[in-house]
Design goal:
The complex is a heterodimer of chains A (about 375) and B (about 325). Chain A is α+β, with helices and mostly antiparallel strands and about 375 residues long. Chain A contains ten helices and 19 strands. A two-stranded antiparallel ribbon of chain B has the order 1-2. In chain B, strands 3-4 form a two-stranded antiparallel sheet. Classes of the chains: A alpha+beta (about 375), B mainly alpha (about 325).
Chain lengths: ~375, ~325
Amino acid sequence: MQPAETKSGSPSVLAVECQHLSRRFGAVEALAGVSLNVRRGEFFSLLGPSGCGKTTLLRIIAGLDLPDSGGLRIGGVESLRLPAWQRPVNTVFQSYALFPHLSVSENIAFGLRMKRLTSHDIVRLTSSVMEMTQILPLAGRHPNELSGGQKQRVALARAIVNEPQVLLLDEPLGALDLKLRKELQHELHQLQQRLGITFVHVTHDQDEAMTMSDRIAVMNAGRVEQLGTPEEIYERPRTRFVAEFIGACNCIEGKFISHTGSLVEAETPVGRLRVELSASGIERAEQGKLSLGIRPERISLEGGRSDDNRFIGRVEAVTFNGAESQYRVVVGQSELRVTELNTGRRSPGLFVGDSVEVSIPPGNVFLMEG
Amino acid sequence: MSETTVQKSARRRRIRRTVHFGEPMPPGAQTFRAAWLCGPALTWVTVFLLVPLVFVVALSFAERGDSGEIVWRFTWENYSRLLGNGALGFDSVQRLILARSVGVGLATAAICLLAGLPVAFFIAGLPRRWKSAALTLVVIPFWTNLLIRTYAWQLLLDPQGWLTEMLATAGLLRAGESLYPGWPAVMLAMVCDYLPFMVLPLYASVEKLDWSLTEAAADLGASPLRVFWHAVLPQIRPGMIAGMVLVALPATGQFVIPDLLGGAKIALLGNAVQQQFGASRDWPFGSAIAVVALLVMIFGLWLHTRVTDGRREVSLP
């Protein structure tokens, strides 16, 4: 896909390599053998619900925690034995962890001072990074005089001024309000593109992960459920957990009946459903049980194409959300969630109790494991 | 818009901080009641501290009569004696005592700080249920009277005692040498006596330590030593200063320990005062020493507030 990938094998392509990392906290298994690679220069997100182990993984990469077993290489160098202060990574902490006794510029200069740079260089680098993150006017302030968004920027500047090989971000936008979060998401993405530093970003916010990341590792209960680009993860979720954690999903259990070409026919609570699957998907489907999923916005209530699966359903509930409306439609023995854009074409709209034609394109249904 | 509401609620909170038990009251009335409730404490302090203090200050400018009585005639002589103008020409003893007292106070505080830091960190790191037990152990010496503890040191450090013999056998003491009476015994007892005053405030600030800052410092490339210096020390500084003040000031005025363990050779301010009020029957001169001791301590406290306030001033933009 990317030219860098063809050269894999040369360690310089990989910024972080985690091999079977495990970590227990008493009875809780925070990491259950996690292996993943982060490519150089990519925006990589660890996404999952709280307690899924994503922060533990980040802290292990930073050197703030040690795994019980497993291996870790940063920039191709075996790093588990290195203490945090000798690793070429910097962290933006969730709590920001700004030094309260130091001013903004002193906070940012901290890493450079630890590297014993000359004061001339320190001033030059600090002010250029403050300019980049638009906090130059705050240089003399102290952390307790900053707003949440400003603290976030300072924490970011304090980390990137050191030009780490990998920047670790632990829910960096978690404490901010929605509008500011959207704004900073954009800025963070821009910054990453400009600097070319590898970002490893921990979040539980699927929107945030989707909009910013090149690749996402969806984690659950100490394991990586799926790793891929936002499109891959949304379009072809591997497990039910991923499908339901990222976006909404109508999950349907089905029984295999037959297949012709790439079309598989299955018996489901909705009715007979034709599903377009890949070769490997068909192979799995032939084993009998199918776990199928379809996104609410991929179902049409306005009449689809002739090769769609078509059913007659009854509207059970309508929720108006402005730009879109959500419907619950009973089809066969199951209830489907459907999202329709309010384009204004359907003038009277749908009401509870209405009978409606439901179209499900075979290509929009995906097959999940288990 | 939202900022102004935040400011407003902050201001409201500040007003509410006066004594208030739920019923609406105009702010003036609240202040009045607060003052009224302070009455007993205020009376106590006035009668038993302020009045005697004024008396001592006045006394320090009086003269000693021939047979030790107080003659109420104004004179600077007591203070001039303190500066070294003795009856027999220049006499540096009083200034030496002053310097020695301040030195002992500072040395005790410094040793207590070095000894107390590991203790504070150790206790703060203990599991919750062990913490209170450990803190009780720190305070246990207070359950015994100071005099008894000091006499216990005499026994323990006795030149013919087993400890002295052991140290001599180990080659740490030469024959005929002993820790008591003398400086080693005095400092040993001083540090042991004042250590809790250092450990408790230190522990309080170590307990509140924000460890995420130490992680941040390490993450930014600080070695363990520099993490301590740049991320831990600034956080526990208030506890360190409080401990230094709590130890240095009373240690400077200590008189029982130097008297009992110093072998009458080591006189501090407290001993000088005691001697003037006791054996010498020179209350005016004793008062002058007491006043100077008080000034020294006030100076120490002033220095402490300046150091802490100065920090805050620098931190403002």
